[in-house]
């Protein structure tokens, strides 16, 4: 499992996390991943592209797993 440090920020938007962690190649691809229902937040499908991820959230996409802290 990879980790993403918020570095003092309150949250990061889902599509931004997918881009920063290089799970998607572009913002458009990140949005399509969310729309297609392959993104899971804490074990449940997440369809909100701009969902605010906070410390403790775990994102799963395909073979990638990222914990926000």
Q: Percent of residues in beta strands?
A: 25-35%
Strand order of the largest sheet: 1-7-6-3-4
How would you sum up the major sheet? 5 strands, mixed
Order of helices and strands: EEHHEEEEE
| Helical percentage | 10-25%
Structural class by SSE content: alpha+beta
Features:
69 residues, 30% strand, 2 helices, alpha+beta
Give an account of the 3D structure:
With 69 residues, the chain is of the alpha+beta class. The strands form 2 sheets. Strands 1-7-6-3-4 form a 5-stranded mixed β-sheet, with no helix packed on it. A two-stranded antiparallel sheet has the order 2-5. Strand 6 and strand 7 form a beta hairpin. It starts with a strand and ends with a strand.
Give the helix/strand layout.
Layout lengths: L1 E3 L7 E2 H7 L6 H9 L3 E3 L2 E2 L6 E2 L4 E4 L2 E5 L1
Parallel strand pairs: 1-7
Antiparallel strand pairs: 2-5, 3-4, 3-6, 6-7
Quick gist of this model?
This protein is of the alpha+beta class and 69 residues long.
